[in-house]
Amino acid sequence: MEGGNALAQFVPLILIFAIMYFLLIRPQQKKLKSHQAMVSALRRGDQVITQGGIIGKVVKVKDDDEIEVEVATGVKIRVVKSTVAQVLSKTEPAEG
């Protein structure tokens, strides 16, 4: 009889973990996955907003997790790809 009682004590803990997984952990993982997909799809010509609030146009995509963003005519800054918060406008892929 004690085995059934011990199991009954763990059921609320299991339910709490399941609720936390579906309400906190799973949505965070989905958000992270979509952000990584957005960052990996960055191309030259995309208009982006960084987490610091800088709006600019991607001029060059470098392989080492870095992009070059033009914030004004002739003013280019280097930005880490993962700090891009949002892509405002996408460009069509270049044919060739």
TrEMBL record:
Keyword rRNA-binding: no
Keywords (A to Z) from UniProt: Cell membrane, Membrane, Protein transport, Translocation, Transmembrane, Transmembrane helix, Transport
Spans through the membrane: 6-25
Chief location of this protein within or outside the cell: membrane
Record's bilayer topology term: Single-pass membrane protein
Localization: Cell membrane
Pfam families: YajC (PF02699)
Oligomer status and interactors: Part of the SecDF-YidC-YajC translocase complex. The SecDF-YidC-YajC translocase forms a supercomplex with SecYEG, called the holo-translocon (HTL).
Family designation: Belongs to the YajC family.
Function (record text): The SecYEG-SecDF-YajC-YidC holo-translocon (HTL) protein secretase/insertase is a supercomplex required for protein secretion, insertion of proteins into membranes, and assembly of membrane protein complexes. While the SecYEG complex is essential for assembly of a number of proteins and complexes, the SecDF-YajC-YidC subcomplex facilitates these functions.
Entry protein name: Sec translocon accessory complex subunit YajC
Species this protein is from: Roseovarius pelagicus
